[in-house]
Amino acid sequence: QVQLVESGGGLVQAGGSLRLSCAASGGTRNSYSMGWFRQAPGKEREFVAAISWSGSSTYYADSVKGRFTISRDNAKNTVYLQMDSLKPEDTAVFYCAARKELLIGVRTWEYDNWGQGTQVTVSS
């Protein structure tokens, strides 16, 4: 069982940037693909980005493509989400998730472990 802790959320103006981090511990000798999801108030949790175990494959939701970049450093057991050109509609709690598979998943049910979430608020 892997434990995930997100950090890096906060309040930023529209057009600004934030970098989220997700530190993994426990069970990290297994191969995990990783994903970022977000949940706005009153809405379902939605897929944002995912990265394969090796980092060679990434996938993004259309709403963030070209603005967000997912990356990972397996030596540090950490996954990052660089968010640029932020918009007010990006405001949500962002969750990191781990999937005990080499390949990317885009659905919440494909992920086995979740972090507690970090709040991102984008003001207009």
Sheet with the most strands, sense and barrel status: 7 strands, mixed
**Strand share of the residues?**
over 45%
Please state the CA-atom Rg, rounded to the nearest Å: 13 Å
User: How would you sum up the global shape?
Assistant: globular
Please write the string of helix (H) and strand (E) elements. Answer: EEEEEEEEEEE
> How would you classify the helix and strand content by structural class?
mainly beta
Q: Give the integer mean of the pLDDT values.
A: 95
Low-confidence parts = none
Count of helix runs: 0
Counting DSSP E segments of at least 2 residues, the number of strands comes to 11
3D architecture notes:
The chain has strands at residues 3-7, 10-13, 18-25, 33-39, 46-51, 58-60, 68-73, 78-83, 92-99, 113-114, 118-123. Helix content is 0%, strand content 49%. The chain is built from no helices and eleven strands. The strands form two sheets. Strands 2, 4, 5, 6, 9, 10 and 11 form a seven-stranded mixed β-sheet that branches. With 124 residues, it is mostly beta strands. The model has no long low-confidence stretch (mean pLDDT 95). The relative contact order is 0.32.
Compose a concise summary of this entry.
This protein has 124 residues and is an all-beta fold.
How would the blueprint of this fold be written?
Elements: E1 3-7, E2 10-13, E3 18-25, E4 33-39, E5 46-51, E6 58-60, E7 68-73, E8 78-83, E9 92-99, E10 113-114, E11 118-123
Parallel strand pairs: 2-11
Antiparallel strand pairs: 1-3, 3-8, 4-5, 4-9, 5-6, 7-8, 9-10, 9-11
